[in-house]
Design brief:
seven-stranded mixed β-sheet; 11 strands; 124 residues; 49% strand; four-stranded antiparallel β-sheet
Length: 124
């Protein structure tokens, strides 16, 4: 059974930083595409960043480029999202997602397994 557990969310002021972690278990984590998505109230879930199995390929939404960094430690079965220079518009529930099949898409529909989410709130 695949299990994803996010942590690291919280409340910060504009310009602050947070580091999200997603611990994975129950499958061959190190061979799979991982991603972070977010969903704000009243909005659709959107991709924030995704990373290929070996960490050599990354993708970032335009809104977070230059501020967020996705990384992974396959020895620890963990993927991270370092978020710097946070803005109020980054406020959302952040979800970790895993893809078991081949490829590494950026669409919500490309990911089957999801964590419960961790809340990030940025105040002005």
């Amino acid at each position: 059974q695949v299990h994803l557990m996010e942590s690291g969310g919280g409340s910060v002021q504009t310009g602050g930083s947070l580091r999200l972690s997603c611990a994975a278990s129950g499958y061959a984590y190190s061979r799979n595409c991982m991603a972070w998505f977010r969903q704000a109230p009243g909005k659709e879930r959107e991709v924030v960043a995704r990373i290929t199995d070996l960490g050599t390929g990354t993708y970032y939404a335009d809104s977070v480029k230059g501020r967020f960094t996705i990384s992974r430690d396959n020895a620890k079965n963990t993927v991270y999202l370092q978020m710097n220079v946070l803005k109020p518009e980054d406020t959302a529930m952040y979800y970790c997602a895993a893809r078991i099949a081949g490829g590494c898409p950026v669409a919500v529909s490309g990911f089957v397994y999801w964590g419960q989410g961790t809340q990030v709130t940025v105040s002005s």
